[in-house]
Amino acid sequence: MENIIANLNKAFESRIRLGIMSILMVNDSVDFNTMKDLLELTDGNLASHIKALEGLEYIQSSKQFIGRKPNTRFLITELGRKSFRDHLNALENLIR
Amino acid sequence: MEKQIEDLKAIREMMERSSKFLSLSGLSGIMAGVTAITGAAIAYFYILEQPRAVAVPLLILDASLTLIISIGFGILFSVRKARKRNLKLVNSLTRKIIYSLVIPLVTGGFFSLILISRDQIELVAAITLIFYGLGLVNVSKYTLDEIHYLGLTEIVLGICAAIFLYHGILFWTIGFGLCHIVYGFIMYRKYD
Predict the structure, then answer these.
(1) Beta strand pairing call for A30-31 and A69-76
(2) How many Å lie between the alpha carbon of A26 and the closest alpha carbon of chain B?
(3) Residue A1 pLDDT greater than 60, yes or no
(4) What does the pLDDT look like over B76-93, one tens digit per residue?
(5) B37, HSE (Cβ side, Cα atoms, 13 Å)
(6) SS3 for B139-170, per residue?
(7) Is the pLDDT of residue B105 over 80?
(8) Which end of chain B, C or N, has fewer beta carbons within 10 A?
(9) SS3 of residue A65 by DSSP
(10) Which domains does chain A have, with CATH numbers?
(11) Hey, is the C-beta of B3 within 8 angstroms of any chain A C-beta?
């Protein structure tokens, strides 16, 4: 049992980070505002979780300008995809 | 244990909510079907009795009105459903959906107009069914699974309409009328 729990990724303990990763698993890239609406979060709250996931190199951002407005888009990295998949498997094994 | 189950539920919900348009209402389908049957009845009992020169512009008008009214009901019920479930109707997903639906539909529309202008009106029922079906299959990856099967059904009916050329309006009425009502009802029972 302990072994299985060890496979759970601490980074995904928070429901918000879980949400960010889930969204990026099934979309090529998602911009900040869409992400905010989907997760029903405030700017600051989302930004801090994004920063944490970026720090782990699970997601990456690209900043573009649409006219003068900056538009930040996020996408999942290979490492992020693999880590999330492992976490999902661990979750499934736990409830089996 | 509880937390793990809740986590999995949240993952599934976020994946669906971010990649699928779930505000589509079964009522839209039912109303589109009723509108199509009305449009087809007007065409069959009134317009097709007229001389060809009058009938063709009237048919185009009839078809356009049917389309506009159906889309209108579609938008109306989607707005209502989105509001009820607190979802946003217009987002990057909606743009993807419109894009993948518009290409086959506009192609089919142009093709139909070309056929009409060449006086080959018999094939129009088949062409509209086939291109509409292709559009639905194309868009179904972004929305409810039923749309995929509705699309396949429309394609098959379109091919039948081309084979049995002089019963085109019958297949058109089944495809745009009956199928919309049946699928709309199934979707309404399942999701609304």
Answers:
(1) antiparallel
(2) 6
(3) no
(4) 999 998 888 877 777 778
(5) 11
(6) HHHHECCHHHHHHHHHHHHHHHHHHCHHHHHH
(7) yes
(8) N
(9) strand
(10) 2-95 (1.10.10.10)
(11) no
